[in-house]
Amino acid sequence: MAGNTFGTSLAVTTFGESHGPAIGCIIAGCPPGIPLAEGDFDADLQRRATGRTRHTSQRHEEDRVEILSGVFEGLTTGTPISLLIRNTDARSKDYTKIAQCFRPGHADFTYWRKYGIRDPRGGGRSSARETTVRVAAGVIAKRFLQRQFGTVVRACLRQVGPIRAQLTDWQAVESTPLFWPEPETQAQLESYLDGLRKAGDSIGALVEVEASPVPVGLGEPVYGKLDSELAAALMSINAVKAVEIGDGMAVVEQRGSEHRDEIGTQGFSSNHSGGVLGGISSGQPVVARMALKPTSSILVPGNTLNVAGEAVEVVTKGRHDPCVGIRAIPIAEAMMALVLADQVLRHRAQNADVADPGPKLSGEAQLRAPSVD
Ligand code: EPS
Q: Which residue has its alpha carbon closest to ligand 1 atom 14?
């Protein structure tokens, strides 16, 4: 399915539009024997859902997953897993006024010029609605990694517009639907978002995602490097305009003596690399950040053209996200988990017989017994 599949040994194909009858995905290559039930998707889908706070879209979707294949008596069977989520709260009349013009900064224009036809209802395929099924697929990848290595994949907001947060307490992140790690600036963030909503505008955001522990050896240099595949996976999320691994863009101002992560008997002394060396996981936490643009569906009037090429002014009314970064937290986790799980299976295929020469560093992920959940 051209352009709608990613992953090699664990491959995910998604389908569906925001205002169509349903969205869904097919996950091929999932190992057998993983416990899986329809309710297992609920927690992460709720974390991503619209309508949890006044700062996100007020569309209220049920987001109930139906497992159509690949699971028997509560266990994955190794055959393709198909997941279906029916759309239950689409309000297509919101799009009648803008169906014939292009929102500046939106995929409206490029979809129209590329395909010569588009489904304007809710942005069709270009809607963030599609990310729901990525999160569902990510639940399975997270579970696989958790069972294999005890890996936890987690993400948080690090910046919204001018407001930055230090990441000192992961527990604070899940205490509100804003995934903000700094309780002291939470009120400032909320009042900033309230002001933005009143102005009918939107704002960008920075999201950080990490996986830990991650075993040494994941990644296939040179064109299947762990970091290049992570960057591609995160960049494929709607509205993402930049991705960093480890220190990312900050390396420009670093010296080699500062950037390198020195190695001692207790392991690495720092993690500037973001857990990836030469495109292969080093055994340290894998850390990435992504920047999301301010969404283009805003109430501030903008100049554009209609499909006839006439100059018009556009205002986008409806139930939109003023900061799409908020709901991107579980999406970033899902994409990182899917990339890592895929690389685990690829590593096994090529290197299952390699005798690890060591040295093993403290804190390295160890393969767990299969029964651990
Ligand atoms: C979206 C616009 C809104 C959001 C939607 C993403 O949809 P609509 O205008 O159809 O109400 O609610 O997000 C979701 C439905 C979701 O589940 O994430 C957009 O333009 O991307």
A: 129
Pocket of ligand 1 (CB under 6 A): 18, 50, 57, 59, 61, 90-91, 94, 122-123, 127-129, 132, 297, 318-320
Type of residue at 66: E
The predicted pLDDT at position 373 comes to 55
C-beta pairs of 148-151 under 8 Å, 24+ apart in sequence: 148/344, 148/367, 148/368, 149/213, 149/214, 149/215, 149/365, 149/366, 149/367, 149/368, 150/213, 150/365, 150/368, 150/372, 151/211, 151/212, 151/213, 151/214, 151/340, 151/365
Q: Whose CA is closest to 144, among 16, 10, 246?
A: 10
Mean pLDDT of 203-232: 98
CATH classification of the domain holding 323 = 3.60.150.10
Our CA angle for 104, 106, 108, nearest 5°, is: 100
Does 84 reside within a domain? no
pLDDT in tens, 326-367: 999 999 999 999 999 999 999 999 999 999 999 999 888 877
Structure pTM? 0.98
Average pLDDT over residues 215-226: 97
Domain that holds residue 276: 92-258+270-351
Measured in residues, the chain has a length of 373
* Rounded distance between C-alpha atoms, residue 308 and residue 326, angstroms: 36
